């Protein structure tokens, strides 16, 4: 049981690293599969649990990502 608990903890930590890099859930799933051989379903499940436990954080996170994408699109279209 300790092995699965430490594995989930490691996935949790890696998801936090993805958040630092402002990645989407899908980007994180892809990166963890490619670089750490973690199945996307596991990343998705852990991410979803983090969302449930940290609703306020993820609301701000998603709004910030959306705003950054909107600014990126508007600045590239005005160039």
TrEMBL record:
Broad EC category: hydrolase
One of the Pfam families matching this protein, by short name: A_thal_3526
Keyword terms of this UniProt record: Carboxypeptidase, Hydrolase, Protease
A molecular function GO annotation: carboxypeptidase activity
EC number: 3.4.17.23
Name of this protein: Angiotensin-converting enzyme 2
């Amino acid at each position: 049981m300790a092995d699965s608990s430490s594995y989930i903890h490691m996935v949790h930590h890696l998801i936090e690293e993805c958040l630092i890099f402002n990645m989407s859930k899908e980007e994180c799933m892809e990166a963890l599969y490619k670089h750490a051989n973690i199945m996307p379903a596991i990343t998705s499940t852990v991410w979803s649990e983090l969302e449930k436990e940290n609703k306020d954080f993820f609301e701000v996170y998603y709004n910030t990502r959306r705003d950054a994408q909107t600014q990126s699109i508007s600045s590239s279209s005005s160039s």
